[in-house]
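TASK: fixed-backbone design
INPUT:
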């Protein structure tokens, strides 16, 4: 369960730009202290998002006609990291939380990874990190991506877990700039597609447990 004053929300299917705008509203409210910490789940319409890492745009391999035929849009964003894909069959989590009590972005990223690793362990998967790379991996196969931003020590953006997306869409990019690995999903690793509602429930439980030591006491 979330700590007192914190909430877990599910926005359902959203366009990326709309979800970004809604995140910014929550960030402003969290900075003002009018709302508590949030974990927001959503599933985006197909989109490639380009982060702030230099050279990220060059990792888009498809031309406009190919993107149009695939129904994929492209959005620039201010999160950390390179280019990645979001789409149906993927659970995206946006934590809007205050780190003012523990101003350690590295610890926050590790807590996000720990929550994902703990969740995937409940499905019998042994996942972990790769040296020098963010996200959660099974060997050299990436199962979850992480890209965050912070404003006045309030976080936004977050993580994306591949439950059962169309993995062919990742062929149109160099995902996260990675050339020595591949992208996988829960469905591919397990041989069946787990219930997304159950996955989100497990994610929320593990997220709040792992993030708890970093939370501010300012939840209204």
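OUTPUT:
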């Amino acid at each position: 369960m979330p700590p007192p004053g914190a909430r877990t929300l599910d926005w359902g299917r959203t366009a990326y730009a709309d979800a970004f705008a809604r995140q910014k509203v929550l960030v402003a409210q969290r900075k003002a202290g009018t709302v508590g910490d949030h974990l927001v789940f959503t599933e985006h319409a197909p989109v490639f998002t380009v982060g702030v890492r230099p050279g990220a745009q060059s990792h888009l391999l498809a031309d406009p006609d190919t993107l149009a035929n695939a129904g994929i849009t492209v959005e620039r964003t201010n999160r950390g990291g390179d280019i990645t894909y979001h789409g149906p069959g993927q659970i995206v989590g946006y934590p809007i939380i205050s780190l003012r009590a523990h101003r350690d972005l590295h610890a926050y990223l590790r807590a996000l990874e720990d929550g994902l690793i703990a969740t995937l362990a409940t499905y019998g998967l042994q996942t972990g990190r790769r040296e020098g790379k963010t996200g959660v991996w099974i060997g050299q196969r990436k199962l979850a991506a992480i890209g965050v931003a912070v404003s006045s020590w309030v976080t936004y953006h977050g993580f994306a877990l591949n439950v059962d997306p169309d993995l062919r869409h990742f062929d149109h990019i160099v995902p996260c700039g990675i050339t020595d690995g591949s992208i996988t999903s829960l469905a591919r690793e397990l041989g069946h597609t787990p219930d997304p509602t159950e996955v989100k429930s497990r994610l929320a439980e593990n997220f709040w447990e792992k993030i708890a030591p970093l939370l501010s006491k300012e939840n209204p």
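COMMENT: The helical segments are 16-32, 64-70, 105-121, 186-190, 196-211.
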